[in-house]
Amino acid sequence: MSKETFSRLLREARQRSVFTLERLAEASGVSVRAISDMERGRSLPRQSTLSDLMDALELDEGERRRLVQASTLRAQQVPRQLPPDLAVFRGHEKALKAVHGTMDQVAGDGRHVVIAAVGGMAGVGKTTLAVHWAHQVADRFPDGQLYVNLRGFEESSRPLDPGEALGGFLRALGVPSSDIPPGTQERGVLFRERTASRQLIVVLDNARDAEQVRPLLPPAGCLSLITSRNQLPGLTAAEGASTISLDLWTQEEALAALAARIGDDRCRSEPDAAAELVELCGYLPLAVAVVGAQLSGSPQLSLRYSVRELRKARPRLDALAADDRRVDVRAVFSWSYRALDQEPARFFRYLAAHPGPAVSAEAAASLAGVEMPMARRRLRELTAASLLSRDAEGRYVMHDLIRAYGIELMEQEKDDHVGAEIRLLDYLRHNAYAAGRFVSRFPSEVGDAPAPGVVHVTVDHREEALDWFHREESSVATALRSMQDPRLLRHRVNLTLEWMGYNAAAGRWAEEVSASRIGLDAALVLDDPVAIARTSAHLARAMVETGRMNEADEPIGMMLGQLRRLPTEHQARVERNVSFLRGRQQRHEEALQHARRSLAIARRLSRTGEIARTLIGVGFCLAMLGQYQEAIATCEEAVPMLREVKDRSGEASVWDSIGLAQQHLGRLDAAAVSYGESLRILEEVHDDYMQAETLDHLASALLELGDHSQARAHWMRAADLLTGLRVPRAAALRAKAEAVPQSEVHSTC
Length: 749
Prior knowledge:
- The chain is mainly alpha-helical.
- It starts with a helix and ends in a 10-residue tail after the last helix.
């Protein structure tokens, strides 16, 4: 958007409301000069100022949304997610003619509303056709292209959740991760809003069923292409989708495709062998492509020899067997695999142990237990051999069927599959520990060294840390879901514990619920009281933050059930965690009881940091129960201890609790100073969650002091922070801001 767009929308809204500049200034509390500057494109308003103007104009939700979007001064992001078009694309002429006919017929009506479902057997070229067609018509859709592999038919993992796919689309459209809601339905609404005025191509590849696809369909003005091994009659009946069923290539098409890869002269010199070669490939595009890639890399190899190799190659890959039993796609994969040298072949097998569709170079190196320069070389070799491809973020993608073949090879070669999985889990855990120092306020306790061969990623600042976490989010989710070997239980627990800090910082509370459940299940199998207590605490926290207050009682009960089995220091932590959670549930008497028990244990242990952190909880509970003088004394006792152990987050919490008690004692100016000190520290440590808490408290004090404008602004800021973290309580804080009487607001632009 631009200042010009905002100025036009504001001027039009004012004129529709029949407001002069002077009348709008009087109604909103914003100066005539400030409004004039906005309407002339000289400035953009703060969000609080914009809210005042929109309230005064009594705009509806659609008008408000357009003004808010225009005020962000953010250039529209044009996604370019389509994989590269295949330079040697051949065949499927009949299907291409059909899809072009469908497109031209609808476009002739002056609109672009095409939903095309491309179906057919595995390896028949559904994705290739969809991508090729999308590239051919891309100039008709100037606002970009979105692409996602929905993983509908992958043995090692579940189909991609539509909500996760929508999250990727929204990020590609320029929506910050902090603005993406947790629920699929809410993400779908935001996706349709962001694409309502755009002309996009959306390619939904490898879909499981219509239900997986429907939430991802954009509104009118876009072209949707869906590929699936299943027919999708529901899309035809309900959405009016055109269905195109791909058959195997004809012999002529297969020979043309082979010649495009290895050269016409080579095929003409051995016409019978070329014909038998594509027949042995079952005229399956994927098989012909793999064979063609290998032959192009070995120009001296005769086609007759290739035919002989394909005939005798075993075992079979049932998932890609054609009707003609002489055709064996696993044999094609086997031939491609045997063309590799020993070390690239080993790397390929270990790479197949990755449970997800895309893997970073660092994760790939860890799986194989090799250093990064060697890993990059191997990845280039496998990409050149058509065993890997690259996605839009530079990760390496192995097709699900090729990965299944690689797993079979691991079993045949008696490779250490579990060892590879341990290295992957250690890579994800230990690098999360290193990156978490820049992101999380929760102390980590990683103590053991990673397995030999695990890659260490260098992270020097917060942006690099967040980038690494974002890159590996999907790997963590698929690893936790799919790695079921009992020998990995401890590693799964440790991984969930290490990622909690990032999930909290990024507001990924829905994801944390899923992850901590998995960690808790593993801890229960291990019958490890410490692990049970810690994973239960994380699960309860995530439930509380997602508004599931009553459900949190179960994991809280599990924490308390482990108390007698825990070492003394962990008993103090459990009591402190339960105190925090009971406080969130507004059960402050119980919270104080648990906080005092934690403090008693900490004093017996004579651990300064533990004593100080527990004093924070005691002081907060006392303040919430009206014992303000005692609350202040308790918190002041903690301040020098926290400074001694350099716990900045804890010190911020203490000042917040002191301010809360001072406010209730009527010492409003002192309370504002204490809250300000807390906010200063919280900004330094990038703790958005606690900033929102303290802003809430400060706003209430300012309201008592009569500073309505600042009170409203602080509540709006707190609501924005919690919205970014996807915490439901954001709505309550926004309601507080909106409840401040408009007549009392004297904001300036």
